[in-house]
Design brief:
2 domains; FAD/NAD(P)-binding domain; alpha/beta
Length: about 325
Amino acid sequence: MVKRDLVIVGGGPAGMAAAVSAHENGVKDILLIERDRYLGGILNQCIHTGFGINYFKEILTGPEYADRFIKKVRDMLDIEVSFNSIVVKLASDKTVTFLKPGRLETVKAKAIIMATGCREKTREMVHIQGSRPAGIFSAGLAQKLINIEGLLPGKEVVVVGSGDIGLIMARRFVMEGARVKAIIEIQKESRGLLRNMVQCVEDFDIPVYFNHKISRIFGKSRVEKVSVIRVDDSFNEIPGSLFEIQCDTILMSVGLISENELIDMAGIRIEENKTSVPGIFVCGNSFKIYDIVDTVTKDSFLVGKLAANYITNQ
């Protein structure tokens, strides 16, 4: 079994910031485990601007923001990065088992930082009735298809929910020549940032229906239409308010969930940025969902320092 001072799970903005911080605070033996082929996490597909305003005092795209930390990680030769590596088990004795191309490895660490990010809620989590045709995507998946793969998932779009990714992707679809028929939000106001409501929705004249929900999805091989109904403040349907929207694509933007399955399986509790096991820390969106990446970076720098202090005092 290989022994390391610090193991960080996740090479997105949180994991990279924690690695840089730990290194700057004296940890010289760091393993950063990343399941993708690149560092940067979700930032790699966020080609819109709005990043770095608070932290760098500049307006950057997601890849530009990530690149600044990727360069720092590369320059710190004591940080080893294991790409294409998926952690399959975390144990309370601070061992991590991960699968990498060709083999399964287990490493025991003095300290561990979990920076596994978050995932999107799905259609099933919001209980929308109807068939299960093609054409239903999470907003983040649609973002990856367009920005990374160069594919346009649909031409007539309805966005369910008003999270930031959904608002940004509504604009992206319009810019790519598609038509966004509506954004349907069950709450009385947007759940996204004000700047995204202005820049992505109002500036592009995209219709928004607050206090509405999708009551049913129609379609056999592909989405054909949705029925929409108004709800009151208690989210009860209002009779006589039902109407239909023709579409071929539905984007789900109904919230994010922290990725903490490994922590849960190990029987570990999260307590602020620390956990119930001394020496295991959590940062970024795996700790809680943040609105902007600048705050993720600041939070992760703090956790990197906490981990370094813990290792030093062992």
